[in-house]
Amino acid sequence: RKRFRPLRTVVAWRGRAEWDQVMVGLYCGDSRLQQEALDRVSAWKSRYGPKMPLAVDCTAELVRCKVLDSSGRLKSHELILSYGLALVRFVNLITERKQKMVSIPLRQLAREVDIPIWVVDLRHELTHGKLPRLALCRKGCDVVLDWLRKTYWSRQLGNSLCEESEDEEEEQEGMEANAGLDNAAWE
Fold first, then answer.
1. Half-sphere exposure of 19 (CA within 13 A, CB side)
2. What is the pLDDT of residue 184?
3. What are the pLDDT digits (tens) for 34-86?
């Protein structure tokens, strides 16, 4: 008889400690630590390529916008375009996996995954309409980063970045402690 070994998943990060360090760095609010976390995500991406989890990629792009914004090096219009691209990519990538053979409206898909409808409307304006104000793009970025933190990052490896209400804690306890770090698990 042959003994089967459990399948191992190869990931770009060294281990849980590195994953946790990047996760905390991305959400810490200190632009220097955020930049270090972004550099680490870039290294992961170079190793992992298209297998990089969408949530990690989207989080990095949105945090990169916030770091650029806090640096004061970009003009308002450039920041709007930067935030806009990151927000459009987020909505498109997250809802794309839910699209079937028949086109489903983005608003419906957003409701299914609990993304605020106004973020989808912001994406629509960025794509098809007049560019919104910078303040609205910043607000959209903050809301989406919070959504990613709650929906993806906090669920990975049973970790949590924020103090949660009791309801959220009970919900967290009900989730699988070791949810996979890949795109399939995130769906």
1. 20
2. 42
3. 999 999 999 999 888 888 889 999 999 999 999 999 999 999 999 999 999 99
Residue 181: partners with Cβ closer than 8 Å, 6 or more residues away:
9, 11, 19, 53, 156, 157
Instruction: Give dist(CA 183, CA 63) in Å, integer.
Output: 20
In Å, how far from its chain's centre is CA 94?
A: 9
The amino acid at residue 112 is: E
Q: What is the pLDDT of residue 173?
A: 36
- pTM, full prediction: 0.77
**Alpha carbon distance 136, 121 (integer Å):** 11
Distance CA 62, CA 46 (A): 19
Q: What is the three-class DSSP state of 96?
A: helix
Q: How far is CA 40 from the centre of its chain?
A: 15
> How many Å apart are CA 72 and CA 174, to the nearest integer?
43
- Alpha-carbon distance 142 to 150, whole Å? 12
d(CA 60, CA 13) in angstroms, rounded, equals 15
